Amino acid sequence: MIDNINLLILAPYLNIQLLLDGLFIGAIFVLAAYGLALVWGVMNVKNLAQGDFVIMGGYIAWQVGVWGINPLFGLPVAIVFMFGFGWAIYYLVIRYVIERDLFTSLLATFGLALVISQVLNLLFGPEVQIVDSGFAVRSIPILGGEITVSEIKFLSFLMAAALAAAVVLFMKNSRMGQAIRATAQDARAAKVMGIDTERVYAFTFALNAAICGAAGVLIAMIWNIQPFYGMTHSIRSFVIVTAAGFGNIPGVIMAGLGLGVAEQFSGFVLGAEFQQATVVGLLVLVLIWRQIQSSRHRQAVI
Amino acid sequence: MKEHSKHLVPGLVILVFGVAAPFLFPNYVFQFAILWLMITFALTWDTMGGQMGYNSLGNIVFFGVGMYVSALIQVGLYYDIGDYTAAYGAIKVDYTMEQYFTGLILGLIAAGLFAVVVAVAFGSIVFGLRGPYFAIGTLGVALAAGELIGAWDWVGAGSGISMPVYPGDPDDRALLYYFLLFVLGVATFLFLMCLYSTRFGLAINAIRDDEEKAEAMGIHTKRHKTVAWSISAFFLGISGGVFGNMAGFIEPLEVAFPTVTFGIFMVVMSLLGGKGTLWGPVLGATLFHIVKEVTWTQLLGWQWVVLGLLIIINVVFFQQGIIGWAQDKWPERFGIVVEEDAGGLTDQETAEVLTGKGAG
Q1: pLDDT, tens digit, for every residue of B269-322?
Q2: Fold designation for B13-300
Q3: What is this model's ipTM?
Q4: Predicted confidence band at B1 (pLDDT cuts at 50, 70, 90)?
Q5: Which region, left, alpha or beta, applies to residue B356 given φ > 0 means left and ψ of -120 to 50 means alpha?
Q6: Contact A294 B147 (CB under 8 A)
Q7: Domain spanning A2-295: which CATH class is it, in words?
Q8: Helix H or strand E encompassing A294
Q9: Window 263-302 of A, Cβ < 8 Å to B
Q10: Does B344 touch chain A if contact means CB atoms closer than 8 Å?
Q11: Cα A269 to chain center, whole Å?
Q12: Is the CB of residue B319 less than 8 Å away from at least one CB of chain A?
């Protein structure tokens, strides 16, 4: 461990490498976390199947790659498919848990996560998969060393940013986006104003699934996927949203990029097997931090 | 003790069955032992989740901690733990009966006590969290615990520890662990039955119903929460110690901290039977275990999918559970008095007030 820290000090270009990798991955975490914050804020459902939606998107890209098409074309496929899937899940499950207490939605989506990960395991097998998109890897000399950046990582960063911008613009300007924001503020008043809140909820959940699907395609191309990695992605989203607070888009972006970077550095310093432990440890730390904050006002974290 | 008398008949039937089962069905001793373990799981989860309204997804931590503490004491009494685990089972333990039982008894006591220590420490981290944050926080701690133990070489890291071998006849061994788990399950039940009928039981119910009001009424909520969790942890810790010995080999992810199997089973079983009731977890655990044992192998790899679907259906459509459903249907049988139109609010209005929707 100390050796690894020394290595970082002796070879400063490694820091740049880790920082860049962290930012590239973190941009995708931001997407999934934004979806979680959306569903959480609008319909007060904590979706523990968030990460499994991401992994589903990843397997769509993988499948597209198996068919011999560049997995980049999996992106629109994943968005459309996951949108439909989210809509179906809304009508099958989520619809019944919106009005109920929060543990109900948490446990129901946990069951959903279990089903999705197990079905993926049966369909695709438990191997860790990397989707090759056929882009070149470039070496860039910097600070007396060479860092490697594959073009796909850079491209995925741009696409993540474009997707996030598209969603934010959609929420700001479109009729549906306005309806979603109105429902989030006060569902009852929105209903009185003639908004079909049921449809808004279904659309919100489907939109979240689509965002996750897109994030999954990017994750599959620049990192790796496995049927059971979903839970870690869910916890990442929770860490980010809990740290930033929902409705705080700059906060989500900062927290997401920060988490990506923190994971890369801890993975390098402590070893790859600590990567999941880092995420979970950060979750606990964020929760403690939130508690200390709220206890100043004698409140619990609810 | 009059209010306990209604539990007498079913209790006696279960006791007689429990004692007779391993002799009547000698081929299924292991399955019956697991049944008692499941009942202990469901009961201890319900103390927090059902009676106190703190839905933990991480109670499995105490199970794993108990298992490891017991194992370390049993091995550490006679061997150096670092050498033992580094040898990956190459050191063959050869205990006499006396050594084995000294280790086992000390190990189980320490398992229970250490689990309580962990519960107090863990509680100071998570008891400021409410509702979903509590559930996610505990889930996080449980996942982290497995990962951390898995990276700790001194306790064998990912390759685990092989437990001391029972020096006697294997059939006696099976019976020994069956009866340990049976006694543990019964003891947990009796202890919780007495506990729920005291002021303490009422206090934790008050915390479930409205924690702020309970605190305003002078209940020291933090202390009650910690004590309730310590009780769960104590029994879970011992059950972990017993299960580790019964399994013969322990490792962090699948045996000691199985968050997505045992950790979720305990929630599902309580919900299935009816959370917040005394018999609900027992009934839920029994049904769940029987159905699981009968169908598990025939589902050909789809069992986990079925389990997930069961959780969804149970939580979404049948959350009151079997006992809760029966209470709704025949309230007078459970001594719940239904007031005929007392001139107050209708059920609908009451529900709205309770959920805070009527106010807006």
Answers
A1: 888 888 888 888 999 999 888 888 887 777 777 878 888 888 888 888 887 888
A2: ABC transporter involved in vitamin B12 uptake, BtuC (1.10.3470)
A3: 0.80
A4: very low
A5: left
A6: no
A7: mainly alpha
A8: helix A275-295
A9: 271, 273-274, 276-277, 280-281, 283-284, 287-288, 290-291, 294-295, 300-302
A10: no
A11: 24
A12: yes
